[in-house]
Structures are given as structure tokens and as C-alpha cells.
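Repro:
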Amino acid sequence: MSYEKDCALAISIYAPGWVHEDQSLCLIDRAAIMHDGVVYAISRPYRHHQIIQCVFVSSGKQIADGSQGFLTDRGAFLDRKAAGQLAKLNGQYTGHLHAGELFSEDLW
């Protein structure tokens, strides 16, 4: 991974909701970590540990104790359990969720 090119970005969006305006279900779009009210995300196929690495390399900030989850295609942050529920509802994931939680390995 090129940390200069693909580094995680701090995103200040926390938009609740699983449904688009046309009532279609949102899709899980990318791995994300919420730490101190800021969401750090990276495009797929990158995973949570790569967000942690990238943020540390680019800023020296430790975010490993943040809440791991995902961003929807609408920009909503969902923790692993909520993301698992959404992925099952919208058909993105049909397998067995480990402890009811979604992992990036389940999707990409």
C-alpha cells in the first residue's frame, strides 16, 4: 500500500440511516473506525488494520481503541453488529456472522 496515495482520510460525517430517499437499502461501502467522534475510512479492499496503520503513519495518532465498523454508501457509520444486520438485510452477505458481527473479510 502506498500510504501517501491511499491513506485513510478523516471524515467528519456521522449520518444515521440505512435507507436511501427512494427507500432502497444502503450498501456497506468501506471499512471505517470511529475514534473521538471522527470517522477514519479507507476504500475497499483495505481492512481495519490498514486504517490503523495508515492513520499512525500519516499523523502519529493511535486509533486502535476506536469503534470498528463500516460506512454505508450514504455515509453513515455502522458498528460491526449494525453493519452485519444491514448486510444480511440487503443481501450483501448471506453467510454466518461471527458473534453477530461483520468483518471486511466477509465482503471483500
